[in-house]
Automatic annotation (TrEMBL):
Coiled coil: none
Transmembrane domains' residue ranges: none
Protein name, as recorded: Hydrolase of the HAD superfamily
Organism: Catellatospora bangladeshensis
Domain of life: Bacteria
Gene3D superfamilies attached to this UniProt entry: HAD superfamily/HAD-like
Length: 199
């Protein structure tokens, strides 16, 4: 029996639509005595990340906590944070294709409180039917409540909502919540995703 195409798409931001090029930092480590990767690792430690992505800390407070943990200077943190990555135009074209075909599309991301500033910076403020930021919602992926709220907002049953993310834990959480979920590995996945949406 052929599966009914998904009626809505939930797509992750970092690692799927937005990426960061390590080469963009140049001689950052030589100038500041600390590697950008070390700052990121500190920021992703759960004790710092969780309050930042659930709206209990502002992005600046999160950055300050990274500075306290790593000893990085304010100048180093400001320079590190100024680079906001780049948008994968192939993935963005897929988002536009899905919307043009009548599929509702939501951005589904664990983010700090400045996500909407980033979307405006990239010209993406109107690129989605809804934006689900964990900092706004107070709950993060892969919690069932996160996916339930997103599906309600998109007015789509979980079984007809396709979730795309680059993190296995989030994929498992989405499937447990009843969504169709696919792990993002790169542009070669788009053929399957288009098929799942009936495009």
């Amino acid at each position: 029996m052929r599966r009914k195409p998904a009626e809505a798409l939930l797509i992750d931001f970092d690692g799927v639509l937005r990426h960061h090029d390590a080469a963009a930092y140049g001689d950052f480590e030589a100038r500041h005595g600390i590697a950008p990767a070390a700052l990121l690792a500190s920021g992703l430690e759960w004790a710092r990340q969780l309050p930042a992505i659930t709206g209990h800390l502002t992005r600046q407070q999160w950055l300050d906590s990274i500075g306290e943990h790593t000893g990085a200077s304010a100048a180093a943190l400001a320079e590190w944070d100024a680079y906001r990555g780049y948008v994968d135009e192939t993935v963005l074209a897929f988002v536009r294709e899905a919307r043009a075909a009548g599929r509702r599309v939501g951005l589904a991301t664990n983010a700090t409180d400045d996500l909407h500033d980033d979307l405006a910076r990239f010209g993406l403020s109107d690129a989605f039917d809804a934006v689900f930021s964990s900092a706004d919602m107070g709950v993060h992926k892969p919690a069932k409540e996160y996916f339930s709220q997103a599906c309600r907002t998109l007015e789509t049953p979980p079984s007809l909502c396709l979730f795309v993310d680059d993190t296995d834990r989030n994929i498992r959480g989405a499937r447990a919540a009843g969504l169709l979920a696919a792990r993002w590995n790169g542009p070669d996945d788009l053929r399957y995703l288009r098929g799942a949406l009936g495009l």
